[in-house]
Structures are given as structure tokens and as C-alpha cells.
Amino acid sequence: MGAGMALNRVGVYPGTFDPITSGHMEVVRRSLRLVDKLIIGPATNIGKGPLFSLEERIDIIKDEIQEFAEIDRDRIEVVPFDGLLIHFAREVGASVIIRGLRAVSDFEYEIQMANMNARMEPNIETIFLMASDRHQFIASSLVKDIARLGGDTSQFVSKRVFQRLKAKFATP
Predict the structure, then answer these.
(1) Domain of residue 20, residue span
(2) When you count CB atoms within 10 A of the terminal residue's CB, does the N or C end of the chain come out lower?
């Protein structure tokens, strides 16, 4: 690289984000230290029917990133994707895929996926960010279960997401 040439490292952070949790937001925050541009990619094709529609999940993510400083918000884009993650990463010009790891149980699946992706596209690296102690056990599926059963999810998600979850499970 020549002197003064700007490096524009694009990272993709894929997930279902159904809903986005404090743990996801921690990964977003930390990812911004590693890349110049971060693309948050909510997957459109999630097997089990999502609680929140794709449109809702995009809105929620966009709401959540409003809490960042403008300089960081300008570096984040929310782009939904369908199909293979590696194709999506290539399409958006990403050089890294960012994955959050909560526990050892995540690792086996994630390492297999990273290895497959590396085979298909050797120029795209996968970076694993370990969840901090505070967020290690937070899974969207557990958050939804707690909300569904009338429990308090406020310590696992933002106030905005908490309100949306309450609204989803409010009895008419």
C-alpha cells in the first residue's frame, strides 16, 4: 500500500437479531474498533418463524444504533441478506465476518462455519469476539422465552427492545 492510501476495512456482523440484545450491541461496539465500516446483516431466512418480522428487526437495529455517536453511526449500515453469508460478505466487499461467541457450545458450530467459509472465500477472514462476562449467557431465544412467560427481560435488552417485547406478548 502506498503512503497515505486509506484502508477501508469492511466487516459484516450477521445474525437473526430476533431481537437484538445487549450482547449483540456489545459486539457491534467492539467491532467498530476493528473495521472502518460495519454492516449489520439480519438474516431473512431464519428457519424457525421469527418473533419479529424482518422489517421490525431492521427498525429495532436502526433504533439501537441511534445511541452511538454520529461518527460511529455513519460507519454502520443495516443490510438484510438471504442465502449464503459468504456470498453476502463478498457482495458488500467485506474482508471480515464478525461473530460473537457466548460459550464453548457456540464454538464448535462457529468454527465449522468459519472453515467452510474460508474454503469458499479464502480472502475473507472470520473474527470471533468473546462475550464479556455480563453478556455470556444472553441468547435471543432465551430472552424471547422469558418475555413470553411474562418475565423481566430488561437486564438483557435495551429499554426500547424491552418495550417491543412487552408489546408482542401483551394479551389483547
Answers:
(1) 10-136
(2) C
